[in-house]
Protein 1
Amino acid sequence: MKKFLIIGANAAGLSAASKIKRIDKDAEVTVLEKSGFISYGSCGLPYFVAGIAKRVEDLYHFTPESIKEKRGIDVLIHTEAQRIDKEKRIVYAIKDGKEVEFEYDKLLVSTGASPIKIPFPGVDLFGIFQMRLVEDGIAMKNYIEENRPKRAVIVGGGYIGLEFAETFGHLGIDVTIVEKLPTILSTFDPEIVELVKETLKNHNVKIYEDETVMKFEGKGKVEKVITDKREIEADLVLLSIGVRPNTGLLKDIGVELGEKGAILVNKKMETNLPHIYAAGDCATVYHMVWEKDKFYPLGPGANKGGRVAGSNMAGVPDEFQGIVGTAIFKTFDMEVAKQV
């Protein structure tokens, strides 16, 4: 019986695991997940923090127990892969403080991406958050309930920042967005950006563009954001300045990297290393408009790439034809979309 090992139990990883089991119901499929939750969408986190999604259970589709029962997939949470021996085909991981070995015939790395954290002075003050994991949403929700912040500063004017502008506004918190670039939503057409800005201002969101955060100040808890142009009072800060692919496991064993350091894969989701595949936010995807491999960390590409990887791992040839760069988000009463 072949052993299939997957690192990462979210969109790409579980799509691959499910595809393998559909092709071969007797396959041994094990998924390692370093966090405590699986099968969730980060897009739901603003609505959980806002209280629109009432329970943390509303954020995820499966638990390790339910996916084992329904699909026969073994998922181990709080299990962090540390290194890969590509010659012996062994992944070494830490679980419960002990090193555990996992053998594989085929390996998928779907480790996702992590928020960029610039080492501003004061960045570790209480009340400063990043948002990626379910645990991040729980921590922010608890902080808001316990501290009742009145002024939030969002560093970064991209999708996540603007979605959380609505979240904080919904909770009655004053919102300020600080964007280093000349405009928020820098990849959108100017006409669309102006409509979004009008919506934000109609909801009393302050926007400071072409402005750089220098440091954070406070006594134990954040109290001020200092930029190159002003001081802004704040008792809650969200850093949303982009993400970087999590590639350390493969970078150290000779994997070829692509745009922004993402793992370079072909249309079968194969890396340049034998028996090792990659998919999701840690890997590149082929962009059909640009006609080249791009780093595009969004859910649709992760789900599709995971399914293609799983099919090829299980011996059924398939190719991911690529993406066209579609993205959509919502802020207040405006839904915004783009392509390319």
Protein 2
Amino acid sequence: MSLVFVGMSGGVDSSVTALLLKEQGYDVRGITLVFSNIDGERKCCALDEIKYALYVCKYLGIQHEFINVKDLFKMKIINPFIQEYLQGRTPNPCVNCNFHFKFGYMLEYAISQGADFIATGHYARIIDVGSGKLLYKGVDSNKDQSYFLARLNKFQISKSLLPLGNLTKDEVQKIAKESKLPLKPHLMESQDLCFVPNNDIKNFLIQNNVLPSRGDVIDESGNFVSNHDGVYFYTIGQRQGLNVQLGKKVYVKYKDVKNNRIIVSENPYFSGFYGSKLNWIWHEQPKDGEFTVKIRYKSNGVMCGLKLLNSDKIEVRFYEKQFGVTPGQLAVFYNGDCVVGSAFIEEAF
């Protein structure tokens, strides 16, 4: 009987994951990584919710343990998050958390305890294609989370189970209800960052000594438009909070961190971008060619041409210009439903 450690958050997805694996005959143990001290509603790892992981494991008759990783989380996720903003980028800490913690620290710990696999409640699929295991989109297009797993390496993928990948969210909720899992009533899902109170990023940055600094807002011709209170507090494609009155809609198109300037435009569309920190998880490193790319989690995939410039830099050109291409965000490349790999956006053009 294979031993699998299931990452438990106290929510419906990880709870049903543990249930399904137990029904499939695995020796299941629950593990919950405690990332922060933040409590309250609508957080993926809030203290008020993770206690339900213990309740579910007791209900299923499986072992469970909490592991405090707060200090390591601050070093690996929170501090780099702040540094990215200081460089004028807009980071996505969730993809790094999956790599370092849910499929990094947890996998290392599980293996040290004799486990064969780890499992999570992500909506994505891992399929053995003969030459190895590959990552695919989940069948529920509204919940597919393969984007968030595109930084995993091949070893992490080979040691992971994702039983929800072939189910829809409605099916998972039905299983939870019929199985009478002891979950928190009326639990709402959220895309909020678990370590940012009230998802107020500006206030979080200020509390961490990223202080307001008055600067100019200019248009693409260099004309003065208005003032801003800190280039770090804005992101590409943003319109709200600009305090600009031009009689037309304008958006942040570029950020000049060195000169503390924001450049706005009616047309924040880009032809492509340069990417770095490449991570290829396909059965072979892709060559120059045509792929589908997602430049943010909720964006639709679009066709692009990919060109390898060197071992760690690519040039990507969209077949149609895209809105708000944002340095610091993750670009994920697909061949059909299969994840080819990913890169962080360095510069849009």
